Amino acid sequence: QKDGYRFFMEKEIHEQCVVTSDTMLGRMCDEKVDFEEFDSSIIEGIEEIKICACGTSFHAGLTASYLFERLAKVRCSVEIASEFRYKEPLLNKNTLFIVISQSGETADTLEALKMANKEGLKSIVVCNVDNSSMTRIANYSVLTRAGIEKGVASTKAFSTQTVVLWMMALYFAQYKNSLSIEEMNSELKALREVPKSLKVHDSTHEKTKRLSKRYLHGHGFFFIGRDVFYPLALEGALKLKEISYLHAEGYPAGEMKHGPIALADPELFTIALMPQNLLYDKIKSNVEELSARDSTICAISPLDFDLADDYIKTNKYDHYMLEFFEMLVVLQLFSMEISVRLGNDVDMPRNLAKSVTVE
Ligand code: M6R
């Protein structure tokens, strides 16, 4: 039941503006965030947060690490679950352990959660499936309420996870009094606008269709961004890889000059995430360096950028997270349209399964 869409992925991209409202339902009051799943005792005695996840869920975790530190002023580290499991990690009881999983069944994330439980850490799972293996064993489960996600390429799972984690950062900020009333109000106002920022605009979709023709041939893609737009760049690259089978890498823009810029030539496509509200001048100068070395640049930004070979204009918002969500939709559409043009199976890409229950 694709409801008239060509693919489940396309349907799920369109659903994001609705399901993120469900994610927030009952969890946002006038001036605060509330979770019925836990109370403020969850943060008592907590000195740091550790997040573990795989794939797209890891990217949501990496995004959240910026938000937890910036908003709640809690130290936060993020690890890929398959690495965490075998590194003999030193765990501390004052750490809140958060795992993120759409399915709640990913073998490595489940094992990481078991390890944390065994060490007596407080654990939370951010999950889309109730009564999954992870929700059964975590101390607390926060459901993302994305509805069933059928496309192997995760879309609405990521946006709802990110919304939940942003809300959790604000919940902890309330407890820690780390934001002024004005700052908290502006965060809450931005959160309420998330569904709007996730709307698919026909003109943007058309643009990604047109661009998909040009970006089929080359020797690779760099998706670059800074701050939370770095995990978003990772997510954009992962989306493209898994359904188009083209080589793509996500990179923190400031790292390009430390090696990867050596690859720059017209056949290297740079997808540059250039938000207005966060480090615009910094990313701009990183992109200028790539352009000076002839990389083909596709800029995604609300601000005009003359050096771009192609340009996808996004809306202007007051908050960088709203720019983040609108750019997420652009990246999802872009990878989907490239996959379509290549004749690939968008919903069931080769070699991949929806849920990775073996390590
Ligand atoms: O169910 P999970 O969130 O634990 O799955 C983790 C990854 O396997 C998953 O996010 C994968 O990377 C996506 N299919 C990517 O689109």
SSE topology:
Layout: H1 8-24, E1 48-53, H2 55-72, E2 75-80, H3 81-84, E3 95-101, H4 107-118, E4 122-127, H5 133-137, E5 140-143, H6 156-176, H7 181-192, H8 194-197, H9 202-214, E6 220-225, H10 229-244, E7 248-252, E8 268-273, H11 280-292, E9 296-301, E10 310-313, H12 320-341
Parallel strand pairs: 1-2, 1-3, 3-4, 4-5, 6-7, 6-8, 8-9, 9-10
Helix pairs in contact: 1-6, 2-6, 2-10, 9-12, 10-12
The chain binds 5-amino-5-deoxy-1-O-phosphono-D-mannitol.
Main location: cytoplasm
Protein name: Glutamine--fructose-6-phosphate aminotransferase [isomerizing]
Catalytic activity: D-fructose 6-phosphate + L-glutamine = D-glucosamine 6-phosphate + L-glutamate
Structural descriptors:
five-stranded parallel sheet, binds 5-amino-5-deoxy-1-O-phosphono-D-mannitol, alpha/beta, 16% strand, 359 residues
What do these coordinates show?
- It is a single chain.
- With 359 residues, the protein is α/β, with parallel strands linked by helices.
- It contains 12 helices and 10 strands.
- The protein has helices at 8-24, 55-72, 81-84, 107-118, 133-137, 156-176, 181-192, 194-197, 202-214, 229-244, 280-292, 320-341; strands spanning 48-53, 75-80, 95-101, 122-127, 140-143, 220-225, 248-252, 268-273, 296-301, 310-313.
- A 5-stranded parallel sheet has the order 2-1-3-4-5, sandwiched between helices. A 5-stranded parallel sheet has the order 7-6-8-9-10, sandwiched between helices.
- Helix 2 runs parallel beside helix 6 (156-176), helix 9 crosses helix 12 and helix 10 (229-244) packs parallel to helix 12.
- It is globular.
- The two termini are 31 Å apart.
- The site of 5-amino-5-deoxy-1-O-phosphono-D-mannitol (M6R) has 16 residues, from helix 2 and helix 10.
